[in-house]
Amino acid sequence: MIEDIRPATSADVAEVKAATDAAYHPYIARIGVVPVPMEADHAADVAAGRVFVTQDPVRGVIVLHTQDDHLFLESVAVHPKARGKGLGRALLAFAERRARELGLPEIRLYTNAAMTENQALYPRYGYELTERRVDGPYDRLHYRKRLPS
Which of 46, 56, 112, 147 makes the best surface tag, with the fewest CB within 10 Å? Predict the structure, then answer.
């Protein structure tokens, strides 16, 4: 399934937004604000080569930013219609493969503390909690995963 993940194109922008919005919409009431990925400039991220997708129509989206010493996983979204099919797992595996291809030793990400499902999910995939920080209205848990050399 990881082989089916490809760079998003400008033709995918509407579906990237739709999948992202559908995945994050349930959290609005829980966290009290619109999650950052819903307000992202998807067209700019796609044009910059930061967005990767799986399936047609797009059902899985991952947004990755290359930093000097790590790969930052800005967002991973699976459309509710595609949950339970391994897309999230495949997207996380893709991020690891991408970091290795770029010669980066770790992946970093954060999630809202109110997204409690993620607090169980990320450690299952080898991510360790590094800090909790409040950024404006967002109470964020920061994680990292060190990749073996």
Answer: 56
Which CATH architecture is the domain 2-107 placed in?
A: 3-Layer(aba) Sandwich (3.40)
pLDDT in tens, the chain (149 residues): 667 899 999 999 999 999 999 999 999 999 999 999 999 999 999 999 999 999 788 999 999 999 999 999 999 999 999 999 999 999 999 999 999 999 999 999 999 999 998 888 999 999 999 999 999 899 999 999 999 87
CB-based contact 20:37 (threshold 8 Å)? yes
Torsion 72-78-84-86 (CA) sign: negative
Q: Give the amino acid at 59.
A: R
The widest CA-to-CA distance across the chain, in whole angstroms, is 41
Q: Which residues contact 138 (CB under 8 A, 6 or more apart)?
A: 31, 33, 36, 112
Dihedral over Cα of 41, 39, 61, 119: its sign: positive
List the chain domain ranges: 2-107
